[in-house]
């Protein structure tokens, strides 16, 4: 470590600094202990279980692409990357040059004081809870849900303990804007525009890759009278159709309609959207990695613009690898965030 951290601070100094900040930070003790265990590779990850002779697959049960150790489940896994990218910590964390989990902790403690460290520690804890929910309850929490949960969790703890420092400052206010997907993942934002006086709805879709490039977009009408909720479900289905049309096998469809996302994650057989949801789930089951997640409205502005466009113009607008001139400024506005 000394060699790795050659500079003004020795490896031992960095480590001392980290433990000092960890124990001083204002988060529940169970969070500190969890992070301590992760640092020492003492979490019951698939890798450490298999090392101890438990007959399990070493692969990460979420992404099935990496060996599941602390650094994978809490940082390298595409699921974890989505969470960090959704948090306000990303501009700092993305500078982490890589390494095992302890190196990640040492890097982080060189960036923040013990107050600022709070939300980082809580997200580390939430990432592990999310992993367990997925393995043991088959429940998938979206990245934005995790970040919101971590903020609430820390806020409640501070309030209950009479620590009235503004939570926004400590959580570095989670950002809700659009961000590029992690490596190899295609992000497909979808939205519906519903005007009850019209006999059709507008649907907007935009698919972008890790370099913010627009792979494809769609603005079209779907004829019929639909409730806003059904309209949003139809928009998700159009997004999934587009992924299928483009032959993608690693994608996430993002909708700002929380109820539609919930209906797809936990389908109800007699619900009015049941058929649409079944279609969507069939497609998801047929690809390597396909998901439907929630995103704030602020993170879904391009799809919203495309949906509105379909309400006002009767042209079917579709493209691959190009952006129409009128849409360009909206795509650019997302990149500024
Ligand atoms: Zn993984």
Percent of sequence in beta strands: 5-15%
Number of separate strands:
6
Structure classification: alpha/beta
Placed side by side, the strands forming the largest sheet appear as 5-4-1-2-3-6
User: Percent range for helical residues?
Assistant: 40-55%
Number of domains: 2
Give the biggest sheet: 6 strands, mixed
List the ions, cofactors and other small molecules found in this model.
Answer: zinc ion
The overall average pLDDT, rounded, is 88
GO molecular function, one term: nucleic acid binding
InterPro entries: RNase_H-like_dom_plant, RNase_H-like_EbsB-rel, RNaseH-like_sf, RNaseH_domain, RNaseH_sf, RVT-Znf
Domain Reverse transcriptase zinc-binding: 13-84
Protein name: Reverse transcriptase zinc-binding domain-containing protein
Structure, explained:
With 337 residues, the chain is of the alpha/beta class. The chain has two domains: 11-171, no CATH class; 186-336, 2-Layer Sandwich (Nucleotidyltransferase, domain 5), CATH 3.30.420. It is built from 15 helices and six strands. It has a six-stranded mixed beta sheet, sandwiched between helices. Helix 1 packs across helix 8 (114-137), helix 8 (114-137) crosses helix 9 and helix 11 (228-245) packs parallel to helix 13 (274-285). It is elongated, with a radius of gyration of 22 Å. Residues 1-9 have low confidence and may be disordered. Zinc ion (ZN) is lined by residues 60, 62-63, 66, 72, 77, 79. GO terms for molecular function: nucleic acid binding; RNA-DNA hybrid ribonuclease activity. This is Reverse transcriptase zinc-binding domain-containing protein.
